[in-house]
């Protein structure tokens, strides 16, 4: 046999059959040993000879290693890597082999052995591969997938490829705010070393050395080691980089090869979604449970100012008392309250809290020092333990009704203090306690209904204050489903409709409220407001349509003038003729 005949290569084929690609959206068939199925719609068949390991299969761009034996349908063998004793390696989906291989091998697992029957259209076509493979030959390949090296086109533009050398742990990847610790070595294509570090820490979104590093680490797992092929756009571009310190120069438009290892990272999260309360985890906590609103938490805590001034220290002495508070009760600053709700037992974290979530514009006397106004605060917090507030599903019916009543009163107090957001949350929690009342007695259902009406009405008032008019309208509708003649619900829903410019619906609710309570002063005043809004709206509409009609009239006049001009033109021509 001709030793040069390694494998059916794409570039040996007639150009008409130089197929590439990984088979697009072909599904991996589920097969039992000995079973055969067709892959796709082009006649490719796969028969499973031996099960593989796990569930993973290679993808386009991956470097695969296989053993194979190729035969014609009559059993004539034309090539075998097994006979040569050397596995065959190639890159999937790059047209380096016949299309039948690219389509078939992406369905295999590590260690799997399969027999592929490949029609001529997916092999060597009309030309064949003389003298071994005749024209229009259907081929069979007994293929064993030994292993593969994952190669990913990270940015999907061919500018940054990642080849995995060592698999990482678990499944998590670093995010933009996280602080990563990496080792790396960067070389030019000729092997010249330009930069190296045995351990450097940086924030992912800030990046380090060149853009490729931050883009790559976001795809990596802890302990993963990769080789990056970096085109100039993810390196140093058209300008290159001059030599600096221990780092060598990178010429303009130079490609790089970077060996990169993700050693570890600290998870950093934006607790408030506005980057004003940032939490960096120093030590992961236990399990999955976190405190809920109303939980009693116990912490070890150190609080410092930007200049290092210590203003709070609790729980760090041998017999030191732990810092204890109830969440969502305004017993501590808002930033600390919110951050603790995201922590697990045993977790240690650094918190950076902007003044808006700290002590604000006021000076505050704390245990060990005065915190000046508008101070950014820095806390190191360990959540030692917590006791969650009882959830509604753990309560008896009397406890649910009592709990709802307490939350309602808390909401009322917060509303009076002008804290509408917090009040709204209390009313929502109250309703949640008694949301499902099918198992309640008649008396309990009556109490539950009264509480639902009161809490939804009060919550609607909160939403109006917070300018969340859609939610205010929904809450009032819930009340009217329970009590169709509730004047307050009609009045507040009308207020919401006015702000949403649904004037007809607002007028309907106000008229109905006045039918039920003709002397209600607040409703009468709202009706007056509605009429003024409607008058103003109609005036604007009239002006808008008036302007529009004027413009249309002008356009019509221009069109008529043009038409008259065109009609007149031939007469001038004729007269000259």
From TrEMBL:
InterPro entries hit by this protein: FKBP4/5/8-like, PPIase_dom_sf, PPIase_FKBP_dom, TPR-like_helical_dom_sf, TPR_rpt
TPR repeats, residue ranges: 487-520
Catalytic activity: [protein]-peptidylproline (omega=180) = [protein]-peptidylproline (omega=0)
The species this protein was found in: Phaseolus coccineus (Scarlet runner bean)
EC number: 5.2.1.8
Domain PPIase FKBP-type: 61-149, 177-266, 294-387
Domain of life: Eukaryota
Keywords: Calmodulin-binding, Isomerase, Repeat, Rotamase, TPR repeat
GO biological process: cellular heat acclimation
PANTHER family recorded: PEPTIDYLPROLYL ISOMERASE (PTHR46512:SF11)
Entry's family note: Belongs to the FKBP-type PPIase family.
MF GO annotations: calmodulin binding; peptidyl-prolyl cis-trans isomerase activity
Pfam families assigned to the protein according to its UniProt record, in alphabetical order: FKBP_C, TPR_1
Name assigned to this protein: peptidylprolyl isomerase
Region annotation (Disordered) ranges: 1-25
